[in-house]
Amino acid sequence: MDDRFKNHSLRLALILAAFSALGPFTVDMYLSSLPQIMEYFQTNASSIQASLTASLLGLGLGQMIMGPLSDRYGRRTPLMIAMTFYIISSVCCAFVHHIELFIALRFIQGIAASAGLVISRAVARDRYSGVEMTKFISLLTTISNVAPLISPNAGSAVTSFSSWVVVFVFLGMLGMLLTAITIWGLDESLPATNRVQGNALALLKNYKRLFRDKTFMGFALVNGILFAGVFAFVAGTPFIYQNIFGVSPQLFSVLFAMNGLAIMIGSQIVKRAAGRFTDRFILRVGLTLSLISTLAILIAVLSKGSLSSIIVSLFLFALSIGIIGPVSVTLAMESHGQIAGSASAVLGTFQYALGAITSPLVGIAGEHSAIPFGIVMFATSILAIGSYLVFIRKEELISDGGNNSIIKNT
């Protein structure tokens, strides 16, 4: 089993990471172009921001559609159809002349990009389980986190020598590349005999099954709530670093990249710990680290602490995300292999839905106050731990029979 993981996982992880990267590139790559786009459409900032909201909404809702479709028709066919829509919507975004149509196309683009996010996790569950899946998800997380680091800079590089139109042409070309990868590089991972049968109503019933599974919901909430903290971090740190501490845009980019590096380090820690310790123990370590780091963030902003104290605390929080992400996904999807697409959809949708709540909250006191940011970050850790205790811990105590072993039996 270990030989198979070593021989095949890297190639598959690179392919799936490319599809996972479609979400960050869709959202982040055009951010530096927003002033140009606003001038082109002769509109206001709120209308342009609506295009960002539309893409995020598409990414969230699209997963709830793509997940069941991939359980019913396999992974490759929905992915190829979605990539076709992605190519068309991206190219159309580059050449439309009305802001309302641009916003609508961004919504379609988000739905199409969501297929890459949800199906990549489903393929991982099709191929692996148990310790192998934990290691693979850790590897996939490590590679996938390169995309959020380079996508904003890639967009800035494009607009520095060309117009915003080229950004969407580039995204269309990226969609073409992923279509080619789907056709020639990605084998079908869900055999016809294992697919969910029935009509749309039957597929929707799988969501009822998932929502009634307390253990699944516990892991899904832990994952979703803490990733909502990541959305809060992304929304809040540009103002905290630059407006409150006077950090230059160049240094901000470095500090932002450091947190991406922390997530990658956390994922590698999980990869090495998997098989030696139980996944649930690793999850508890991650939750403890998230609680300590977000408490430190809250104390730092309330006491008007130094920039270094916030940098270190955020680095540790990002490290905890790198630990919690892979194991929470593995544990959530472990017992739902037959409907891995739907399970993956719930995980992804929770992240975006809860992130949509936390992101605006960090700025409610204005761009020169970090207190809401500290409160929101700490609250995400408290709520995640609360979800773990309410939905998971009781079941753990019953199933363990009082045995709290942390070492993985081999």
UniProtKB/TrEMBL annotation:
Q: Which residues form the Major facilitator superfamily (MFS) profile domain?
A: 12-398
The GO terms describing molecular function are:
xenobiotic transmembrane transporter activity
For this protein, the record's CDD domains field holds: MFS_MdfA_MDR_like
Keywords assigned by UniProt, alphabetized: Cell membrane, Membrane, Transmembrane, Transmembrane helix, Transport
- Which processes are annotated in GO (biological process)? xenobiotic detoxification by transmembrane export across the plasma membrane
Give me the segments passing through the membrane: 12-33, 45-66, 78-97, 103-124, 136-155, 161-186, 216-241, 247-269, 281-303, 309-333, 345-365, 371-391
Task: Please name the InterPro entries in this protein's record.
Answer: Efflux_drug-R_Bcr/CmlA, MFS, MFS_dom, MFS_trans_sf, Sugar_transporter_CS
Asked if the record carries the keyword Amino-acid biosynthesis, the reply is no
Please give, as recorded in its UniProt entry, the membrane topology of this protein. Answer: Multi-pass membrane protein
Supply one GO CC term from the record.
Answer: plasma membrane
Main localisation, per the record? membrane
Does the record carry Cell membrane as a key word? yes
Question: What subcellular compartments does it reside in?
Answer: Cell membrane
Q: Which Pfam families match?
A: MFS_1 (PF07690)
**Record-stated family:** Belongs to the major facilitator superfamily. Bcr/CmlA family.
Protein name according to UniProt: Bcr/CflA family efflux transporter
